[in-house]
Description:
The chain starts with 13 loop residues before the first strand and ends with a helix. It is an alpha+beta fold. The strands form 3 sheets. The chain has a 7-stranded antiparallel β-sheet with strand order 1-11-8-13-6-3-2. A 4-stranded antiparallel β-sheet has the order 7-12-9-10. It has helices at residues 23-34, 77-87, 158-162, 189-200; strands spanning 14-17, 39-43, 46-55, 57-60, 65-68, 94-102, 108-111, 117-125, 129-137, 140-148, 153-156, 165-168, 175-183.
Amino acid sequence: MFDDLFGTPLVPGFTHAEDFVSPDEERALIERIDAQSLSPFRFQGWLGKRLTTSFGWSYDFDRSTFDEAPPIPHWLAPLKARAAHFAGLEDDTLVQALLLRYDPGAGIGWHRDRPVFEHVVGVSLGAPATMRLRKRTETGFDRAAAPLSPRSIYHLAGEVRHDWEHSIAEMDVSRWSITFRSFSARANRRQIAEHNRSLRV
């Protein structure tokens, strides 16, 4: 189990709760995600199996640039407010919403979220999954695993956000997720615009 017998996370900064949304809410959210114009995840010319779209801000892995995306839609606003409350954040702190559908055979490899983002709050829908965690050490890796049941929510902050990588193994059933992110304290729109301009020079 990811928590010890006293409920203390084995990796500081990871929090998780079951049944964050109801079964009816889950069905409605899945329908909303499927109704979006989802595109295959792109990374340096490679197309991934998972389908995605972003609101608020998006990151182009082909060009390594951030761009403003369409505003977070009204139907996501109540969920975003509840997710912010769960994470102990103000609602307007969460500036990006990332919608994902993992079709059979899709997963996500080892990574840390881009440093321009700080808090990562995810809602897992449709099928159980396991978030794998690892941190490099002098002799290899420390590892942990966090089960993500349907309708649950998790929050990555602090040590688990910055010192650990996470991944989700390929699955043989479909799964959906909604991830909200905040900017880091050092990030703002001017810095992002300057970063993008420097890459275009």
